[in-house]
Amino acid sequence: MEKNNKNNIPLFSPALFWDINTGELDMEQHKDFIVNRVLDYGQWDDWKMILDYYGLEQIASIAQNLRSLFPKSLAFISTVSRIPENQFRCYELLQSKDKLWYF
N or C end of the chain, less CB within 10 A? Predict the structure, then answer.
């Protein structure tokens, strides 16, 4: 895994953390935030970096407690980790949302 010398943070895709100061980002302290961003917005290389750093078991555990994930992200982590979608917190919250359009 390639790391940034300044703060020991892997070199994620530039657009992934566009809205924050990456100098203040810590891989351990902000792991929920990092995993959420990578699952929803990351590229394949970003996924491989967190997989190498955290491991699949820890990523799946973090993802199970996230309040929101895009449906595709939820399907991906559910498939990769072999954990049913209904065991993720965001699945329960997704089911409780009212639909804006009824087709």
Answer: C
Compute the C-alpha angle 11/61/85, nearest 5°: 110
How far is 57 from 1, CA to CA, in rounded Å? 18
Distance of alpha carbon 88 from alpha carbon 63, whole angstroms: 7
Give the domain ranges of the chain: 26-93
Global confidence as pTM = 0.82
Could you read off the pLDDT tens digit of each residue along the chain, which spans 103 residues? 555 434 456 788 888 998 988 888 899 999 999 999 999 999 999 999 999 999 999 999 999 999 999 999 999 999 999 999 999 998 876 654 555 554 5
